[in-house]
Amino acid sequence: MADVPAEVQPLEAFQKWTELAGRGQQLMLEFWSKEPGLPAADPLGVVATWQRAAAAAMTDPQRLFDLQTRYMTDAMALWQSFLTPGTVASPIAAVKDKRFAGEAWQEAPAFDFLRQSYLLTSSYVMEATHGIEGLDSHEKAKAQFLVKQFVDAMSPSNFALTNPEVLKKTAETGGSNLLKGLEHLLEDLKAGRMKMTDENAFEVGRNVAITPGKVVFENRLFQLIQYSPTTDTVHEIPLLIFPPWINKFYILDLTAEKSFIRWAVEQGLTVFVTSWKSADATLADATLDTYVGEGQLTALDIVLEICGTDSAHTIGYCVAGTTLAATLAVLAARGEADKVKSATFFTAQVDMSECGELAVFIDDAGIEAVERLTAEHPWLDGRNMAMTFNLLRSNDLIWNYVVNNYMMGKDYFPFDLLYWNSDATNVPAKWHMSYLKDIYRDNLLVKPGGITVLGVPVDLTTVSTPSYIQGGKEDHIAPARSAYKLTSNFTGEKRFVLAGSGHIAGVVNPPSQNKYQYWTSDTLPDRFDDFVAAAKETKGSWWPDWIAWLAPRSGKQVKPRVPGKGKYKAIEDAPGRYVKERI
Question: How far apart, in whole angstroms, are the C-alpha atoms of residue 514 and residue 510?
Fold first, then answer.
């Protein structure tokens, strides 16, 4: 290297690293893509992204040289602190990371050095990636996401020979942990997915989704569940909940202590829920029109008929909230807006301009991958979507279980939330493709007339329905900043609540547990940051705030409605057949 200018050496090192990282990322994706029908050849444009990122980084050799110089200085300081115990420790030594929280990482100096070396190197790798210029915003975000995936995968905690806790466990058990881990791996390969919990500990209808009720209507798209009242009187205006069809509805009806549905019934509401069917050939033609017309509008009309009221409260969770916004616009255009007394949105988005990390999957390569996935059948396997969501938090939802299940050989811990998370549903391919292209990629829902639903050009600014909008402070699927945009898309009365935690725990936070807090404000500024600055924090669950907002809009007290009495007879007990289908 004597004849090579010094500034070229870090460029060559960076290029070699990007080639290695790109190949490593590709191998991981190929491993995760062993399900039949999944594309193995660069399914998300990974290699192309790596190449563009590497080329962009090479345009600023001085920056890379300066970065490498700082890295070498810090690495030498770390090495010196390792060789000379008692000297000033490296700044990276104080970094807290739950992957290395076990005592074994600190007991042996060599493993502590390995931990610090990894954290130091990964911090510089991420800094190098974040500083890349010459890429558009999407390419840069995608490059950062892919680098983060590679950095997380390369953690020494993920490999048996570099994880002191695994080595210690292996010595203590004579290797039985590895044999048990192999059994877990073989079982998971047979099941076609990584298990996160003891799935034998739960059964839908036995100890999850157990709130009493009846299925009172069904079509090819959903079953309508009406829950049995538990109060002497009920509010006149009923409540109709639309959960997302990309998951199963019982996230809102886990154990009795965590069930939003049971709690809402106890507040004197007549509660209905749509239990969506997991997509199969019968839903090959399903589109947004289908979920608005055959889905939400049909369910709404039946609820009004059963209860004998002119209007109902509605809740839309996640993608069902996005669809509910379109439904409200259709009703407004038809002069039927009064059918919905109020609309509550759980972590829902309509403006995708700041939709978070999921945007890295929404480009030509990602859409082409979905098209290949659905080439042989008209639905997207829910396990693929589940893996996409898990990748957003790979340390917690992938590598954590690789270590505990396959290397430590730990027994699966029974956890209702993880059981639900593993109970995936298929979605119609035609609907999914149009959703990705029209709503996510092209952001047409917030453009007046950008999307036509049931023959109606959708204009969200015509929606004046009173709205209660909830976002999760740490939501990585529907960021709170994005959910807040609903406040400027609708007219009429609005209330926004920022809940602690994320996409699931931020919603499922019952008053009996009060694990988190929430923030509210009497004003709704244009900017989310201004709302945060002015908002008042309240400890505990936001559910009481919601019912305090809803109750005055719920009419007089009337006799409880018993499911199955009247025109719509009980078809079967809740939770019904549709939710029990597993893939």
Answer: 6
